[in-house]
Recover the amino acids of this structure.
């Protein structure tokens, strides 16, 4: 099946972009006792995969994983959500009891950040020591720090995908295709655990990256967490117009530009709150830099320095393609 499992795993890892180019800092050294059982699972056989939290991300994962031949077992706090997940094809079976996941190969924790640690702690009495656990949270340093002592076979993860909607009703096929999916293993993370998670998410057609948890949090503060705070502030600023007629006209005239810039600020409030709470230092750092940049913009316009303003806008026009197509 696999003549050299360790060699296979190392090849698996070295083919993945390492953010910052620090391969040695990002490839864990440890080997678990799961090598041969993991190799069997990597041989294309359908796995039994658990998903805790059947919202947009968990539900979308379930839809895609079932279409790939895996058996998906879901757990949610609400029976109604479980019923909808099964009816929509996001899970083969879904209940409110974590005991359902007792003999799963891997479990995705798709709860809000505030519940990840307690969910893993509640899972431990039910699952085998060989079960691989991963999460989808948008903050990694705090999660990896808290979960690693509880469960050795934990791999931090973050799919960079989503919509303005939330809940199982918003789940959709292909949500992750073409988007980045970041794994944040540490030196203590077993190679077998990483390889198994990779084998599950690669067929989702994601762009797979590895980085350290703190590197992840600093990067996503710029391109995910800061935009939420800025977008929310934009909406708040618009609502502060003291002239009711002006505000009403602005609401009537709002079109694609406002729709694009306000989308993330008008999304699920719980996500924005968890970003700020669990990635507080990096969010504050990015907000302070943004405030300084905004102050310079105000000064430029106040001084009617149109040449500098044009140069700035030309620079940002060129720079945007470095982030998005």
């Amino acid at each position: 099946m696999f003549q050299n499992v360790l060699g296979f795993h190392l090849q698996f890892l070295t083919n993945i972009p390492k953010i910052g180019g620090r391969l040695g800092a990002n490839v864990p050294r440890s080997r678990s006792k799961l090598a041969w059982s993991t190799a069997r699972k990597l041989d294309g056989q359908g796995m039994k995969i658990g998903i805790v939290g059947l919202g947009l991300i968990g539900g979308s994962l379930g839809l895609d994983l079932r279409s790939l031949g895996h058996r998906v077992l879901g757990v949610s706090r609400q029976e109604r959500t479980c019923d909808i997940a099964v009816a929509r094809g996001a899970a083969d079976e879904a209940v409110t009891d974590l005991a359902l996941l007792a003999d799963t190969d891997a479990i995705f924790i798709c709860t809000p950040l505030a519940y990840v640690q307690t969910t893993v702690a509640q899972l431990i009495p039910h699952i085998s020591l060989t079960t691989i656990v991963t999460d989808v949270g948008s903050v990694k340093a705090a999660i990896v720090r808290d979960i690693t002592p509880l469960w050795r076979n934990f791999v931090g993860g973050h799919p960079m995908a989503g919509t303005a909607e939330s809940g199982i009703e918003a789940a959709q096929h292909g949500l992750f295709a073409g988007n980045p999916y970041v794994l944040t293993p540490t030196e203590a993370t077993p190679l077998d655990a990483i390889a198994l998670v990779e084998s599950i998410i690669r067929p989702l057609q994601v762009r797979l990256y590895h980085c350290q948890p703190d590197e992840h949090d600093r990067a996503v503060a710029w391109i995910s967490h800061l935009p939420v705070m800025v977008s929310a502030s934009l909406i708040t600023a618009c609502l502060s117009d003291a002239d009711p007629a002006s505000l009403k006209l602005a609401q009537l005239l709002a079109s694609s530009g406002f729709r694009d810039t306000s989308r993330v600020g008008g999304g699920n409030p719980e996500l924005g709150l968890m970003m700020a709470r669990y990635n507080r230092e990096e969010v504050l750092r990015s907000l302070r830099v943004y405030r300084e940049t905004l102050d310079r913009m105000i000064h430029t316009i106040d001084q009617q320095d149109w040449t500098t303003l044009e140069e700035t806008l030309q620079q940002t026009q060129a720079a945007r393609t470095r982030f998005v197509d």
Remarks:
- The first strand starts at residue 48 and ends at 52.
- The beta strands are 48-52, 71-75, 93-95, 106-109, 132-135, 154-155, 157-159, 180-183, 207-210.
- Residues 1-15, 21-33 have pLDDT under 50 and may be disordered.
- Residues 50 and 107 are 4 Å apart (CA to CA).
